[in-house]
Amino acid sequence: MDDLKKKTIISTLSLFFQSGYSAILGFIANLVLTILLTPKIFGIYFTILSLIAIFNYFSDIGLAASLIQKKEIEDKEISTVFTVQQILVITIIIIGWLITPIVMVFYKLPIEGQYLYWALLISFFLSSLKTIPSIFLERKIQFQRIVLVQIVENTVFYLSVITLAIMGWGLNSFTAAVILRAILGLIIIYYLSPWKMTINIDLSSLKKLLTFGVPFQLSSFLALVKDDFMTLYLGKVLGFEVLGFLGWAKKWAESPIRIIMDSLSRVLFPLFSRFQADTQKLKNVVEKVIYYQSIVIIPATLGLALVMEKMIEFIPKYSKWSPAVPYFYLFCLSALLSSYSTPFINLLNGLGKTKTSLYFMIGWTAATWILVPILTFFFAGFGFPITLVALSCSFVLVVFTAKKTINFIFIENVLPFLLSSILMGLIVLLIFQLKIPPFQSLLISIFSGIISYLLTLKFLFKIDLFSEVKNLWKTFQP
């Protein structure tokens, strides 16, 4: 148990470091690229990424998740997963290559868009070869090694895109960066987690793996339909420029969520799977996740929403993104609310209740495709973010469902940070009323917001965040 606890802490901290590092690097890259490139280029990039994500779904059918969830795995199961996945991947790539003319005509892509599409197909194949080594590391909860690979990949990708964009490569900047990232990532993962590729299909193993994998993958497919298919739809209906604005707004609004929840989710699924039979330990982990998630995500999201307009004011050539700010506010609200669904969906999946999480995904997907076209017709670009805000409110149902299995405390672990963040927001708004230049106003408001948040927690709710950091080991104790 001590070994598992140590691995959990190291893995979680490694993922947070990677998320923080990638967030800073991505922040710098995003600033440079959004200054150098147009919203239309970003719209094309988001569209093609969504198309490849659709291909990626059909490359797995839930087999990788099945291997992670199982207590023990056999060599024949590993080779079966690898072989089936490669058959699916190669088939999809051939189909993807054959439909290139259709994609080009349907979205009216420039020739640079075709090169990016082909580059992402190649990257898709190389990424599929990383699946088994990654599974070995996830089962051992050695995410620090996966983190190392991701750090190298992100560094190469962002630095390549920035350098090439400065050189005037435009959309081709993404094309070259995608290939470099995929090649280096593949080499490093096999160095850190060696595995000799084996081709074999054991039908009995495949049948057992699919019992868990199919419902799990159906949830992933519905998430795909809800998100990536929607991006393709919006790109066609609203055009690449408006899609670029939506993509920019959503990326910024979800940045705190991506740093925190993506890291937690990677660890929580295998961790919940390990504790399936111990209700008390599950309760402890869930409550601590809610508590520490709320400490960071609520003030970070609210703070980002408050300072975004000031950022646009003083960043050179950034005024072109002003039309995206109203979208950004809506995405901030939806991201914050939906973040409280994520850990409980992981809990349900970790406990093998994939059908329950599947039902939620069916509801979210159906509602998305009913509401977005209707609201887009009436409110144009606002239709999509308004829909996400409405659906994110359903986190209440997810929490209620999870409490039927594990009787955890929710509101008490959220309320102190919500109230402290609201007070922080009021202080920041008061500072904005002062006649101070944008840059100085931004610095003063950020500093004052952080101080007011910490002091409110300490004196009003008796929560000392510095002490919480010192007790981080106890925080992750199962």
Descriptive key words:
single chain; 478 residues; mainly alpha; 0% strand; globular; transmembrane; transmembrane helix; cell membrane; membrane; Poly_Biosynth_Transport
Topology of this structure?
Blueprint lengths: L1 H35 L2 H19 L5 H7 L5 H24 L1 H8 L3 H18 L2 H9 L3 H24 L5 H21 L10 H36 L1 H14 L1 H20 L4 H36 L10 H14 L3 H9 L3 H26 L3 H10 L2 H11 L9 H18 L5 H23 L4 H6 L1 H4 L3
Protein architecture, described:
By secondary structure, the protein is an all-alpha fold. It has a domain at about 240-478. The protein contains 22 helices and no strands. The protein is globular. The N and C termini lie close together (about 10 Å).
Summarize this, please?
The chain crosses the membrane at residues 12-36, 42-67, 87-109, 115-137, 146-168, 174-193, 289-307, 327-346, 358-378, 384-402, 414-436, 442-461. The chain has 478 residues and is mostly helical. The protein has helices at 2-36, 39-57, 63-69, 75-98, 100-107, 111-128, 131-139, 143-166, 172-192, 203-238, 240-253, 255-274, 279-314, 325-338, 342-350, 354-379, 383-392, 395-405, 415-432, 438-460, 465-470, 472-475.
